[in-house]
Each structure stands twice: as structure tokens, then as C-alpha cells.
Amino acid sequence: MRWTLAVCLATGLAVLAGCGGEVQGKKAEQKNPPIFFANITSGTNDVHPVTMALQLAGHALDDGRKVVLFFNVRGVDVPTTKLPDDLAFHDKPVKKLLTDLIDRGAEVHVCPHCMKALGIDAKDLLPGVQVTNREKLFANLGPNTNVFSY
Hints:
By secondary structure, the chain is of the alpha/beta class. The chain has helices spanning about 1-20, 45-60, 95-105, 110-120, 135-140; strands spanning about 20-25, 25, 35-40, 65-70, 105-110, 130, 145-150. The protein is built from five helices and seven strands. The strands form two sheets. A five-stranded parallel sheet has the order 6-5-4-3-7. Strands 1-2 form a two-stranded antiparallel sheet. Helix 2 (about 45-60) packs parallel to helix 3.
């Protein structure tokens, strides 16, 4: 009888382990999910890396990660209302990729110094995009953060 109980317990644990953290077909929410942090320095002059960053951010959201996008250097011209609706690199337009991420809960930060350098005003930013500061930005950096640069 002990052997049967042990086999049942082992089988049950194996089945649970095979679920990959999913509960009833959905990913289990984590208290402190890993953070996917994308440092995006490329802008509208080179949309391939921007598209790659946004696509990877979508995958990170799919996996239950918190997503933080930091647009700086030339990248500050991307999260603006002036971004052409049809600007794309072999996929959905960049504006659509970005607004979908914002709608799904991604945080979007923009460097104020870089905005000034490129003549971008806060009123030019898309809804849901924030001019950042050190405290807001660094709050997302820690041992549970994975940083990708584009």
C-alpha cells in the first residue's frame, strides 16, 4: 500500500511539474515576476531593431514577465504621436506593436534629456508613455531583471 501511495504521489507531482506553472490553461500569476527591460536606442531611422525589441517584449508578456521599455538616444522619436502609422519592418506597424504592448500593461519610459536633444515635447508622446526619471527607471532594475539592448 505504501508503494502504491508513493507511485500515485510521484505521478501527481510529475503531472503538476509538467504543467509549467499553468493553472486551467493560463499562466499562474507571480508575485514578483521577472522583469524584461528593453533599452531601445534605435529610432525611426532603423526600425528593424525597434521591431525586434517590441516583438520580444510581447513574448515576455506572454510568459508572464513584467515589461519595461526605455526609449533613449535616437529611440525617443518612436513612442510619439508623430510616428507614421504605416512605419514597419516585415510585421505589424511599429506604432501598432507599441500601443498593443501598452494596452497589455507594458511600462514605457522615455529619457527627458534625449527628448530635449531631438526636440520632442511631452505632449508629443503616445498615451501611456511617461517621461521618466532616475527613480522610476531604476525601480525596475534588480536581480530579477533581464536587460536587452536594441
